[in-house]
Amino acid sequence: MQGRDLLSIADLTPEELRRIVDLAAEMKRNGYPRLLAGKTLALLFEKASLRTNVSFNVAMQQLGGQAIYLGQGEVGLGQRESVADVARVLSRYVDGIAARTYAQQTLVDLATYAGVPIINALSDEEHPCQAVADLLTVYERKGHFHVLTLAFIGDGNNVATSLAQAAAMVGMNFIIASPEGYDLSDETLAHARQSAAKSGAQISTIRSPQEAVKQADVVDTDVWISMGQEDSSDARLKAFAGYQVNSELLSQARRDFILMHDLPAHRGEEIVDEVIEGPQSVVFDQAENRLHAQRAILALLLADS
């Protein structure tokens, strides 16, 4: 995987995805060598972040390297300077670029012109680093993926897109309950089902959250209104009424289910305090696992062979 881009979960084979998860778990348990001594990662962020920024920074430091944060105000990506020029200039300075962008196409353009690996730290279409952390969290709590069912309640957004594909690749059933107009894309479903046919998983879509969580081993959700979607707040709040993850909904899941949310949470909207602070919530373990997931990704993409 050395020198590769990671723009989408689909860029990985199932074996490579498992390798990342296994390495993340191993490094979390046993520590990590300073594989990236002398290496520098540029954090090219159009959108602000807590977990992504800090976890990449800390991961690089722990592996012996360093990270440089470049916000939109400093770079003006695609405005003050073209994406192509930014990619070519940064490639002369750093060993990799983790980009958090509004548009997936920006990542594609960066990868086209950069001479160093590009890592998708979030776009409008995918969030592959989060999906790796989510798989690590499930594996830690359940010990396996096969025959498990993950129910995602809410928007078929970037988080759900990457998670659906990742679940299919490792053999975990994935079911999403979304209101009409907020479904996973046909392309995502087709790719996930293609992977699921090989792994033995099932990929399902449904309208009813209650039906989705029945027999769920993992219940997951995300905000209804992401950064940049504020203009559609009223429509989204109306559409997602009835999709809140609360105690009544979770009473339909398996007794030993775990609850996930990638954060930040809009408490009182998609999820309530009672469950996010409850005994079956692994939300903050999941947040911690962003660090371990990112450390494994960086080690595999940036370390010298």
Structural commentary:
The protein has 305 residues and is an alpha/beta fold. The chain folds into two domains: 9-127 and 290-302, Aspartate/ornithine carbamoyltransferase (Rossmann fold), CATH 3.40.50.1370; 130-287, Aspartate/ornithine carbamoyltransferase (Rossmann fold). The protein is built from 13 helices and nine strands. It has a five-stranded parallel beta sheet. A four-stranded parallel beta sheet has the order 2-1-3-4, sandwiched between helices. Strand 5 (149-153), helix 7 and strand 6 (173-177) form a beta-alpha-beta unit. The longest helix is centred in the C-terminal third of the chain and has 20 residues, at 283-302. The N and C termini lie close together (10 Å).
Short description:
By secondary structure, this protein is of the alpha/beta class.
| Counted beta strands | 9
Tell me the helix content.
40-55%
What's the SSE pattern?
HEHEHHEHEHEHEHEHEHHEHH
Report the structural category.
alpha/beta
Distance between the termini: 10 Å
* Main pleated sheet: 5 strands, parallel
Query: Which word captures the global form?
Result: globular
